[in-house]
Amino acid sequence: MIEPQVPAPPGSPPSWGRPGGAPGPAPGPVAPASAAGLPVRPGTGRFLVLAGVFVCAACGLVYELELVALASYLIGDSVTQASVVLSVMVFAMGIGSLAAKRLRRFAAAGFGAVEAVLALVGGSSAMALYAVFAWTGGWGGLWAEGPHVLLVAFSLTIGLLIGAEVPLLMELIQRIRRQDAGGAVADLFAADYVGALVGGLAFPFVLLPFLGQLTGALVTGTVNAVVGAALVLGLFRGDLTRRARWLLVTVNIVVLAVLAAATVLADDFERAARHAVYGQDVRVAVRTDVQEVVLAGGTDGRPLRLFLDGRLRVSGDDERRYHEALVFPAMTGPHARVLILGGGDGLAAREVLRHPDVRRVDVLELDPALVELARQDPGLSALNEHAYGDPRVHVTAADAFRRLRGEPAAPYDVVISDLPDPGLTASTKLYSQEFYALVRRVLAPQGRLVVHGGPLASHPVAFWTVDSTLRAAGLRTLPYRVDGRGPGSAPGTAGAPGNAAAPADWGFVLAARASPALRVDRAGPRPRTLTPAALAEAARSAGPTRVPGLPPSTLVHPRY
């Protein structure tokens, strides 16, 4: 709480509160602007301080959202990353507010220093995190296991600096025109919260789509530095010594120069980091409305690799083994009408179309840009054998959950779930009991559903939760596992970046109203990589890994 005080005698330095919190004398008349050393009238000065609060709050929230977005993209599990970043920041803000009490006598200089450091740390945080991630291969596995110390360090530092702003700004606003503490807090927090609203909306709708994560953070830091320096040097320069003014000017020039240089080099840096993550043969890198899509290889005899949000989804070395294991067991029996959930790369559709008696294939893919890439890119379209050129294939760009909740379609003989792993927060609802109940509703009486449940060896609890959730939805299940062929070769990697090891196996669950059988239709086409002996072994090898007693995952209680 700010203690009242009388105006300082002419010629004496300003006093902004008594050390130790001792109460001061009763307030006297408000000093005019000239006596307070302000270049503007008190009303104008107050407005400028609140405007500075507004801008600084917007920048602070952008830093928070930037860390959450980058951590979710690089690590996965956005709920965990958001919880860690925001809780650490809020904790640090409290510590920062307490620490800033010691700076209240030097509020102007302290606020200027805090904003310069905050602009540098917050503006460069995204680039620093991405650089360490790209050039250290995920920090030796620690990144994949939990928030790395660097992410927590940035969250803690930014939170400390944001928290230090509040008591310093309270001193400055009271320095201009004294009012009761409750009114000052209300004005300050009103500007702060409105600024946070603007920053929160600007990040997803302006900064991220138009500038990207790296440049967006750098531009935010630049705005932060300019506003902080302008507020202190323009409005409170009389409270600084000549040496302090020059020091603050020099520090801000250095900060702005660093941020400007980083902004100019951001594109070159991103290309170099992308090559470090995905290899030197990156051909396509686009940010769609849904995700980042990267294609590497696929020409001149090099195997094609498809990455979605930094995770390997297709490897040309062994994708056929994965997709045959996904599709062929489900195609045993009637399969005139097939529904594919996900699978925008067209590779599951390719395997379905190898069965000549298929009459219709519906593909529900959230990202239409991925489908267009699979249709137009020479490497990917050659790999999927131009599946999207087949008149039997019909693509709908829609969220699978929302689509299946709509008007019930004609029943499907086969439903193939080729979705990202359940451990990714964005996919969790598509592995829920409610979603499988919707899928069951569109299954024909003898229909089969096959689900890619992620790597079984490394994530047995998640995989067997998929199995228990399918059974809770009223389906009989048959789990099976197909071995991969080593690091860097498996699609559907659960959270691994492009340069990390892929899982050693792929887990699938075949489900139906009646007990399904794991076999390949003898009257249909023969798989090229999947033998009857391999299928029998796939069913046997899954059983010993079972984790009993797992409850199903639901929308309100996700368990992945």
UniProtKB/TrEMBL annotation:
Which parts of the chain span the membrane according to its record? 47-75, 81-100, 112-136, 148-173, 185-208, 214-234, 246-266
Q: Name where it's found.
A: Cell membrane
The uppermost taxa in this organism's lineage are: Bacteria, Bacillati, Actinomycetota, Actinomycetes, Kitasatosporales
What are the catalytic residues? D418
Q: What is this protein called?
A: Polyamine aminopropyltransferase
Q: Which domain of life is it from?
A: Bacteria
Q: Which UniProt keywords apply?
A: Cell membrane, Membrane, Polyamine biosynthesis, Spermidine biosynthesis, Transferase, Transmembrane, Transmembrane helix
Q: Where is the composition biased (Pro residues)?
A: 1-13
Signal peptide region: none
Q: What CDD domains does this protein's entry cite?
A: AdoMet_MTases (cd02440)
Q: Which GO terms describe its molecular function?
A: spermidine synthase activity; thermospermine synthase activity
Membrane topology listed for this record: Multi-pass membrane protein
Q: Where is this region: Disordered?
A: 1-28, 537-560
The EC category is transferase
Which PANTHER family does the record cross-reference, listed alphabetically? THERMOSPERMINE SYNTHASE ACAULIS5 (PTHR43317)
| Binding residue positions for S-methyl-5'-thioadenosine | Q291, E365, D399, A400
Pathway listed: Amine and polyamine biosynthesis; spermidine biosynthesis; spermidine from putrescine: step 1/1
What does the entry list under GO cellular component?
plasma membrane
**Catalysed conversion reaction:** S-adenosyl 3-(methylsulfanyl)propylamine + putrescine = S-methyl-5'-thioadenosine + spermidine + H(+)
